[in-house]
Structures are given as structure tokens and as C-alpha cells.
């Protein structure tokens, strides 16, 4: 999609195919070649402006990261963050695609961990299928993650969190960690997302879970 608000965004994205990979389906099963190493691959679906994924990639150079985002207007900020770094962020790539097509871009078991951060809540019942923790999405994630592959999920939205706990449990996944107030005793490894900073500044609790297939 071309951004209505940042008409220059798609041109900047198109001029950096080494960072925002233009035809990711051609890289399916070949991400180790793209990164030129065999490090684990962690992806984030719904990366937004990329504060989390760029922060994680800088903090963990031995892990490869891919941020997936639908819109030019936000993913372009993640791209700008990479470009501002003197040597770029070599262990990070970005995909401007829909997470529901994840199986077209990654081979079975090719992804070691999936992050979902402040996913759109889609509060209306009739839109439940669009929630990134809906059973239909869990099915897609299960294919690209290995046995015991993990999903890490953060949100400020209590209803979405409750829904996700149920959806993940009913799917048969094992909940390995649940926090109802991540910032009460914030772990030193936590990297805040844009939304996380916004909502925690307002005093809202941040919910977090880790689950394993
Ligand atoms: N993760 C960021 C954060 O925590 O600050 C952004 C959160 S924002 C509420 C949700 C983002 O997910 C939006 O940028 C939206 O465009 C993106 N998104 C929603 N559904 C998506 C999908 N199916 N595939 C890729 N991105 C998606």
C-alpha cells in the first residue's frame, strides 16, 4: 500500500531492497543465506515503527530478526532507524507483507520464535478471526515454528489478553510464563515497543505471555 501520509515512504523502501526484502517468497527456506549465518531466526508480526525489533537486533547480534508490517507509513520508520546506524543493523530485515501469508515466506520450522506486540485488538466479535492470536493464525505459526517453538506476546488490552490466553490454551499450547503487570518489576531484558511506552506512561498495566507449541 502507498501511504497517504508519507508519499515518499514507498520510494525509500523500494530503494533499500537489502533491508526491506521485496519478494520474500523467493527467500523461503533460504533465510540463512540472506543473513549469511546459521543463527536462530526470530520474527515479529505487526512490527509497526520497529522500536522493538531494532532494539532486539542491536541487543542480540547472534540472533537474526525479521519485522513484518503491513504499511509503508510505519515500517519506513524502522527502515530509517536502520539507516541511521553507522553500520546498519546486519542481523535485521524487514518485510512489508501480511502476517497471514507467513507460510509463503518461511519454510516449515524455519522460524525459532515469534513475537506479537500490541496487536490490533479487533474488539468486535465478528472480527475475532483478524486477531493475530486467533486459532487460524496459531495454525499458521505452528507450521513455520519448530516443535516447542515459542510465541511471546505483549499487550495493554486486557480483553485481547484474556481472549489470547483462552485461544492459546484451547489450541493446546503450553503457557510457560504469564505476567499481568510486566512493568511492576520490569525484567532487564525487556525492550519496550512504541505502544508499550505510550500505554505504560499512562499507568496502564502491560500484560505478557510466553507460550510453546
Ligand atoms: N508492535 C508495535 C508496537 O507495539 O508499538 C505496533 C503495534 S500497532 C497497534 C499494530 C501493528 O500491526 C500496526 O502497525 C499494523 O499495521 C500491524 N499489523 C496488523 N495486522 C497485521 C498483519 N496481518 N500483518 C502485518 N502487520 C499487521
Overview of the structural elements:
Helix content is 32%, strand content 17%. It is of the alpha/beta class. It folds into 2 domains: 1-111, Vaccinia Virus protein VP39 (Rossmann fold), CATH 3.40.50; 115-213, Vaccinia Virus protein VP39 (Rossmann fold, 3-Layer(aba) Sandwich), CATH 3.40.50. A 7-stranded mixed β-sheet has the order 3-2-1-4-5-7-6, with helices on both faces. The mean pLDDT is 96. The structure holds S-adenosylmethionine (SAM). S-adenosylmethionine (SAM) binds at residues 45-48, 68-71, 74, 98-100, 117-120, 193-196.
Give me the secondary-structure category.
Answer: alpha/beta
Number of domains: 2
CATH superfamily of the largest domain: Vaccinia Virus protein VP39
Residues in helix, %:
25-40%
Using brief descriptors, characterize the structure shown.
tRNA (guanine(46)-N7)-methyltransferase activity; 2 domains; 7-stranded mixed sheet; Rossmann fold; 8 helices; 213 residues; alpha/beta; binds S-adenosylmethionine; S-adenosyl-L-methionine; transferase; tRNA_(Gua-N-7)_MeTrfase_Trmb
